[in-house]
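We store amino acids, tokens; thus:
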Amino acid sequence: MSFLTTIFYKPYQAHLCVTSANGFHLRPVASFASTAKQFPCSIFASFKDKKVDAKNINALLSLSLDTQDCFTLITQGRKAEEALEALTKQFSFLMQNDQEIHPIQKEKIAYEGKILEGDIIAEGIAIAKLYEHTTQEVSTQNSLGFQEALKNSLQELDMLHTLHQTTPDASIYLAQKELLKTLTQKNNTLEDFEDAVQQASCSLGETSMKAKISDYQDLLWRVKKHLGIEEKMVLPATPFILFAEDLLPNQIEQLTQSRVQGVILKKSSLRSHAAILLRAAGIPSLILALPDDTECTLVPDVIVLDAYAGVLIYTPSQNDLQKATERLQKNKRTKRHIRSQRFKKALTTQGKPIHLLANVSDVKSAKEAKEEGAEGIGLLRSEFLFTQVKPSFETQVHAYKEIFALFDNITVRTLDIGGDKALPYIRLPHENNPFLGVRGIRLFRTHPEIIEEQLHAIFVAAQKKPIKIMFPMVAQVEEFIEAKAFAYRIAQKHELDISSIQFGIMIEVPSVLFLLQRFNSVVDFYSIGTNDLSQYLFAVERTHPTLKLDAHSSILFDVLEKIVKEAAKPLSLCGELASEAKAIPKLITLGIETLSVSPKMISTVKEEIRHV
């Protein structure tokens, strides 16, 4: 901070508390620092006796902010007040949307052989020989300099983010990219970069963030690889269960190309990026702190990794092997069968058809939904277009056209963004509780130009196709009527025929429950958003670290029953509840005939329906 800044600009500050059970870790830190960089003022985070630059990811991580830790955010200089407001809102959003990773409940299965118990990373069964993790350095001639290797590494992380865009692990690569840019700002050689990684790793070594050290090591590995110095895993050509202290994210990528059957990690964490990637890859895996003198690492024979029971059976009996083999074969048969049936209709045992649509967030996930057997798109989250750079009209039209070409039955949710997430071109006044503030349909009043351009793009892309447009966060009938009239004025202004377009609402605000008779006369359809509806119904955030929502509460199902009975227009349900095996029979019994789930869940949910 310059001397003049301290004289001519007063500081602004806010006290922020970490409410996510995962702490303030790499992914939210990267997003937070990225927003901070957009402002010209000085921005600092102060915790205990340490004060760091909040625009620097590495510095923010060094604070090791865990659940319930509170720090002070300080801004000073040009646009300091604006920066504080935007960052406070974003921090609230990041905390509320940082999904907690819960331990997986273990099945109770009896085995005869000696066992060791661990924590489940990803469920499944593996039967193979145990193989200890080893690597070897492979050097190749390479004329690239450090800066070129760095550039290639950043491009590689971009590519990985795009490749994994529809999966939970996509944000890992984006966060790593931002961390790499920060780490190498003042480093011009590999030696400097290695020193920076070493210092950062040491600062996290004895903190709650030590699981994130692997991200630093992974970035070093990527840069060295592009310099021709690659450390490769030595993996057998036969099926194996890998035992390792921990794994780097890039090593999970290598594992997916091998004959790995399962993984045991000794010193990892359920929150680590290795664990997230193992779950995404579907590799049965445990965290199991093997004693140094355990005999299981010396066993030359086949062992059993039961990641349903959370155990390693390192001296399995013949009965144990038979039991595990039968479970493994059954799983494989079930997966093959479910996959083979994905394009068939989902009929209950009584022959009642249930329509399966997909929740998608971009062109890639829409294509995936088509491949997975979706009958249409029940929820197109249009936020994917609205990033840090405002999308042009042409960009929006092109994206919508690509998606609309895939299905006839498509529901587009208008921009559902508000005070909880700041964008450079959507500035909103400070709100004490942004989740109860300007968001969803309320943007029609504060930023009509944004919504006008979006609706215009949808109308042009639709080309008389029967697209459904859904307004989120509707609380009153008058809001919907105004929004629909606004849409028709846009069509009239551009001389567009939108007679084939339908307009409906997302039922997520409890007031709608008492207005259904009136809504029936103005809407074309309804979609129930159980995620937000539950939050507002019980006044509890889904991601709250201590207060827990009961997703299967009888009260919620009473509410759903009321909606089904009183809604006189087509109805679908698109919340997480739609893909939960325990809830599906109840939803069908209530009379819900259309469910919308993530693309990867379509075949599984169809199979669940066939047993109702």
